[in-house]
């Protein structure tokens, strides 16, 4: 009889064991995007005009994600708090976001923190590594050595913005390039209670 209980628990579920719902993978969040932003390709491509946060915050110590520049224009990629203005482009003008912009500048709190040594071209892949202290950028897998202080906030999200015909495609897993040592895809935090 005990064996039948095991089979029943396998197929139906054991009331003694908590059931977990499968959380959606990390992607751009249609609930937190600019009014004229358009998200396609299962939440991975941003076009139109505006910004979008990812649907999950960066919870672990060292997280990595990538963005491919599909089409040029005005764009930015980085991190932001949930209360950032998703329609006020370009981002980086206040303490709610730190972004690498299409002009090659890393901007946060309204000031330019770094300038890239080279221009980002269509087809290039930007890697973003964040460890809750600093934000680092990679171009086609190569560290650009432009570490910037992060944001002091309880929750920080990946953010991408586009305007002027730019199209950006995000990769929160299945990366084009290997993340730097110790970094990995954004892990989804789930409460056990």
UniProtKB/TrEMBL annotation:
InterPro entries: B30.2/SPRY, B30.2/SPRY_sf, ConA-like_dom_sf, SPRY_dom, SPRYD7. SUPFAM superfamilies: Concanavalin A-like lectins/glucanases (SSF49899). Pfam families: SPRY. Residues 1-180 form the B30.2/SPRY domain. PANTHER family: C13ORF1 PROTEIN-RELATED (PTHR20951), SPRY DOMAIN-CONTAINING PROTEIN 7 (PTHR20951:SF2). This is SPRY domain-containing protein 7. It comes from Tropilaelaps mercedesae. The lineage of its organism: Eukaryota, Metazoa, Ecdysozoa, Arthropoda, Chelicerata.
